Amino acid sequence: MSNESSVAAEQGTAPAAGASHNHNPSPNHTVSKDTRRRVVTASFIGNFVEWFDYAVYGYLAGVISTVFFPESDRQTALLATFGVFAISFFVRPLGGFIWGHIGDRLGRKQALSLSIVLMSVATFCIALIPGYATIGVMAPILLLLVRVVQGFSAAGEYAGASAFLVEYATANRRGLYAAVVPASTAAGLLLGSLLAALLSSVLTAEQLNEWGWRLPFLLAAPMGLIGRYIRTKLEDTPAFRELAEKDDGVKAPALAMFRTYRKQLIIATGAVLLNAVGFYVILSYMPTYLSEELGFGATESFLATTIALASYIGFIFLTGIASDKFGRKRMLITASVLFILLTVPAFMLLDTRNFLVIVLVQILLGGMLTLNDGTLPSFLAELFPTKVRYTGFAVSFNLSNALFGGTAPFMATLLIGMTASKLAPGWYLVAAAVVSLIAVLFAAETSKKPLLQD
């Protein structure tokens, strides 16, 4: 039995007789170093733009809660703000199916070019919505509608960019190439955090509430146009072009995924759980946690998260390299075990209220998260064959993020209120790590093997 057949057998898929399982690029689709460089650049910039747009809401949650919701106690307003944040995630599984269908049927490039336009327009519109004091209940309703559009757009981005990079990469560097996706996501978060820190330090609270919070959202339009322009200048991936030339795709990728690749779908959804909860608790919710729950100043909270994000970006590429060397499964298992053992002690240290300790703890948590996040894109892309890769990735990634990622800030705030314990978000992270560990244990190792095509 060949390596590829072994992988298929381990993952619960029986290749059809005479089918070609592997992606071995034909001479017509050889890729130059210059092309790969442009692919990496375009993927980084496009993903950076989308996730800057998407993340600014989380960093400005405290201000948004006062602008869009009626006067009430602070925790209720925050719950309402994070509730809107969570509801926008519920459309993401639907978006995963639709973007997956477009990406697997019409091409990765087509899906990615459309998604960035939607995200940029929706984010720009947030800057134009009047507050509750001006239009009453229509303010949070309009905010919710725009966030739903953002959620739908984001559903196609992470999966599409990952599939794009993995299909362009050489077999021994797929982990490194795919690590560009979480790195660019963190870079978008980093810019959002820097802008939030800058605005909170140079503007008065009144100026920030009245108009300052709108400025980052206004940047969405020009940034989105730049990202889309760069993407339209690329060819689609060699793997997809070969599939299209052979007319070997499937008319209903989602149906094919559920019919043939159910085990991979379950494994992928479980494996994403640590990423979903960890990403939004550690990199998005943390400034709010530090300021609202621990009493830190807004500027200090944003600064601590900004430092942690910068270190995260550096760690993520090291993780991508390590996953190419040691394998996806080993890296993902290590990440889960570390979170199970160290998360609650780390949250205990946050309560010391010492700025240096808080920065070091956030760097530690971010570094642990990179072991998962830097490995996950290549792992998920390698689980599924070319004809359903975008769909399989997008549906599993967005389903887990909808149920547990988008709700993470809401759940963290709610659990703190219910338990009166500031450690509640830490225990929530531990539970996510346990589920991810179990899922990964059932997966086959996919690194260093040809991509599955059928």
Describe this structure in words.
- Residues 39-448 form the Major facilitator superfamily (MFS) profile domain.
- The chain crosses the membrane at residues 51-70, 76-99, 111-129, 135-155, 176-199, 211-230, 265-286, 301-319, 331-349, 355-372, 393-420, 426-444.
- May be a proton symporter involved in the uptake of osmolytes such as proline and glycine betaine.
- This protein is mostly helical and 454 residues long.
- Helix content is 77%, strand content 0%.
- The protein is built from 23 helices and no strands.
- It has helices at residues 3-10, 33-59, 61-68, 74-87, 92-105, 108-126, 132-135, 138-168, 174-178, 180-202, 205-210, 215-218, 220-232, 238-245, 253-260, 262-293, 298-326, 328-350, 355-373, 376-383, 389-405, 408-419, 424-441.
- Helix 16 (262-293) runs parallel beside helix 21.
- The longest helix is centred in the middle third of the chain and has 32 residues, at 262-293.
- It starts with a helix and ends in a 13-residue tail after the last helix.
- Residues 1-28 have low confidence and may be disordered.
What's the mean pLDDT score?
83
The unreliable regions are 1-28
- The CATH class assignment is Mainly Alpha
CATH architecture: Up-down Bundle
Q: Cα-atom Rg, whole angstroms?
A: 21 Å
Class by helix and strand content? mainly alpha
| Oligomeric composition of the shown chains | single chain
Large-scale geometry? globular
Terminal Cα span: 17 Å
For this structure, the CATH topology is Growth Hormone, Chain: A
The largest sheet, given as strand count, sense and whether it forms a barrel, is:
none
Look at the structure and name the CATH superfamily.
MFS general substrate transporter like domains
Number of domains: 1
Secondary structure tally: strands: 0
Helix content: over 70%
GO molecular function: symporter activity
Protein name: Putative proline/betaine transporter
Biased composition (Low complexity): 8-19
Domain Major facilitator superfamily (MFS) profile: 39-448
